[in-house]
């Protein structure tokens, strides 16, 4: 995949399929230690030891099909970029996936269209609470969808629809700010 | 106008509410975008984004857009299905532009674009 944001979407889809009601996404960039850390944590149904041992295998899947490429692709990318993939999971409690990359690595794809990734998720799963945080050296910005929807007085999916483009632009604005170090 | 704060979003929402009072209807058309790893890699996110954009631009109140996982036709991704009046049509090999055309032709005017159909369920 050409963008980190596509991997993020793919892993978050796993969380939604695991019936998560809350997903926390965190991006931490550190220029000094040359690290780029992506963490996705959910409160879904989690995985037991047997499943956990096999999720990195592209020929293992939790669904009714024969291959499952999401996690293997992210792991391949992390190891290609001088990093690694860690998965911690507890049945009934949730799953945490953390990918570490070398920030300056030439094979690290750009973050890409993160606002679009998040917008697509809000639109199709407005009931899932998403907490997002992006830290770049000493800049940080974050939001929580539940709080935003409450503040805007949005109730059903039909309410969210007209403001989707606005939310996307709002995320884009803050992402630009953080890239510029504001 | 640049949207930089929650206040800006509130304004958009109020603006939108005024418009929605004019049009009310029940959702009778369902569009499902396949969003498995295969779909995402082939461009399903961009397709979904253009569907959302087109539907909100046209202010279509009777359309629901949602997503599903891999349905096993990975080589025809990006795939969507359009469910309207008991008929479910699957379109394959899509692009954001084709997705917009499906909204105007199939969803709004009821004309199925046969050329892009991969499967139909009745």
TrEMBL record, chain B:
Asked if the keyword Mitochondrion belongs to this entry, the reply reads no
GO terms of molecular function: hydrogen dehydrogenase (NADP+) activity; iron-sulfur cluster binding; metal ion binding
Q: What is its EC number?
A: 1.12.1.3
The record's listing under PANTHER family reads: NADH-QUINONE OXIDOREDUCTASE SUBUNIT F (PTHR43578:SF3)
Q: Per its record, how is this protein called by name?
A: NADP-reducing hydrogenase subunit HndB
Record-linked InterPro entries? Thioredoxin-like_sf
The record's keywords, sorted A to Z, are: Iron, Iron-sulfur, Metal-binding, Oxidoreductase
Iron as UniProt keyword: yes
Q: Which domain of life is it from?
A: Bacteria
């Amino acid at each position: 995949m050409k963008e980190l944001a596509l991997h993020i979407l793919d892993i978050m889809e796993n969380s939604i399929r695991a019936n998560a009601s809350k997903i926390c996404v965190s991006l931490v960039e550190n220029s000094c230690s040359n690290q780029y850390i992506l963490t996705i944590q959910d409160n879904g149904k989690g995985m037991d030891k047997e499943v956990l041992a096999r999720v990195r295998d592209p020929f293992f899947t939790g669904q009714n099909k024969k291959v499952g490429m999401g996690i293997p692709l992210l792991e391949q990318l992390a190891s290609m970029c001088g990093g690694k993939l860690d998965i911690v999971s507890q049945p009934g409690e949730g799953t945490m996936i953390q990918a570490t990359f070398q920030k300056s690595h030439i094979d690290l794809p750009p973050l890409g269209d993160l606002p679009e990734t998040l917008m697509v998720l809000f639109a199709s799963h407005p009931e899932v609470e998403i907490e997002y945080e992006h830290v770049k050296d000493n800049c940080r910005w974050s939001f929580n969808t539940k709080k935003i929807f409450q503040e805007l007085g949005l109730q059903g999916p039909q309410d969210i629809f007209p403001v989707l483009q606005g939310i996307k632009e709002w995320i884009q604005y803050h992402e630009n700010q953080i890239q510029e170090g504001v | 106008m640049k949207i930089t704060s929650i206040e800006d979003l509130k304004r958009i929402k109020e603006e939108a509410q005024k418009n929605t009072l004019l049009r009310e209807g029940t959702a009778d058309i369902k569009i499902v975008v396949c969003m498995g790893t295969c779909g995402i890699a082939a461009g399903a996110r961009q397709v979904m984004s253009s569907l959302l954009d087109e539907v909100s631009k046209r202010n279509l109140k009777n359309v629901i857009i949602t997503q599903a996982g891999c349905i096993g036709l990975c080589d025809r991704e990006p795939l969507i299905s359009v469910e309207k009046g008991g008929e479910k049509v699957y379109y394959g090999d899509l692009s954001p532009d084709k997705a917009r055309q499906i909204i105007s032709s199939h969803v709004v005017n009821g004309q199925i674009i046969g050329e892009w159909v991969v499967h139909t369920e009745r």
